[in-house]
Amino acid sequence: MVVTSLLSPLAIAATPASASTTISAATPVLPKPTGSRAVGTTSLHLKDTSRPDPWMPSVKMRELMVSVWYPATSPGRRRAPYMTAKESELLLRDGGITGVPPGVLATTRTNAYTDVKPRGRKHSLPLVVLSPGFKKPRATLTALAENLASRGYVVAGIDHTYESVATAFPDGRVTTCVPCEGEREPSTFTKAVNGRAADVSFVIDRLTAKGTWKGAVLIDRSKVAMAGHSLGGASSLAAMVKDDRIRAGIDIDGTVPPGVPGTDLARPFMFLGKPATYTPGSGSAETATWEQAWKRLTGWKRWLLMTGAQHESFNDLGPLAAQLGLDTGAQVPGPRSWELTRTYVGAFLDLHLRKKPQPLLDRPSPRHPEIKHVSP
């Protein structure tokens, strides 16, 4: 079933490379950003009092943790934490990973500095909203976010509360995943996607309003895009249908909900996935969802596949697991998958939010032979 494949538990990494593998004790490290700007970050605790939580109706408002990455005037003294030790523990436990210290992901070395001064002119910076996969915290898209911020974007990564195995709040609460328990019906998929679309619109509202974040005045409200991984990618189309402020979108290896988009969508959209799941004409249920959505996309569109990728190759978890000595099953090395994902996502955003020509998106590149351009 399509829903089962999308919402099923996804291990961070499979198993140690062999029975004799010694798990690395080294600190995991994110790749350095490719842009020229220093990167700042801050965490926001946002409350949407207009609606109850979709997973916990007894909670009368929707609470979200959001990380904002942005160009900074200079590096700070304190590098931002990747996630909390508790978030690391619960994420590793969910992936069935027992051969590493439970808090090891919390030690990951980032490239952003906490609460440093934003850099930019008023209304000059495009905004990109990132949505992680089902069960995954927003931290798992940090390498992509830092890279975009270093190149002049404001990036907002959302933890969709009760859909992540762990979301830490400033008051010490750690919420876990409600729909992860028991059987998941197709309606779970639809509910999650619609809820995420509402989350995204709310976050755009707050980030572009005065008083939420000190850099709000830097955002160009006419240049907003969304990208997501897995369920987050599937939610990109739904969010674009709901909110026409989102001018362009990317689905990274995420199965599209049935009937989305329900009408023709002329704004730019890109699919980026792995051949094992999304090869056109393969007849798989997952591919069929991209094919039905493709017919509704009437504007600029691309369908790209990364040879040798696994599902977690497109976020931080696959590359970080490899650094820890775990075998993810991916044929494309972690540093290379980071490079390819950041390159093609960045090219798409530069083209559609900054109007910079990107030949990379028009034809196969000899520098990036892993990326296949396909036409359903």
Q: Can I get a quick summary?
A:
With 376 residues, this protein is α/β, with parallel strands linked by helices.
Q: Judging from the principal axes of the Cα atoms, what is the shape? A: globular
Number of distinct helices: 9
Share of helix, binned: 25-40%
Protein structure class: alpha/beta
- Mean pLDDT across the residues is 92
Distance between the termini: 22 Å
Q: Identify the strand order in the major beta sheet.
A: 4-2-3-6-5-9-10-11-12-14
**Sequence of secondary-structure elements:** HEEEHEEHEEEHEHEEHHEHEHE
Strand content: 15-25%
Q: What ranges have pLDDT less than 50 throughout 5 or more consecutive residues?
A: 1-24
Beta strand count? 14
Radius of gyration: 19 Å
Instruction: Characterize the largest beta sheet: strand count, sense, and whether it forms a barrel.
Output: 10 strands, mixed
Give an overview of the whole structure.
The longest helix has 22 residues. The chain is globular, with a radius of gyration of 19 Å. Helix 5 links the parallel strand 9 and strand 10. The strands form three sheets. It has a ten-stranded mixed sheet, sandwiched between helices. Strands 1-13 form a two-stranded antiparallel sheet. With 376 residues, the protein is of the alpha/beta class. Helix 8 runs antiparallel to helix 9. It contains nine helices and 14 strands.
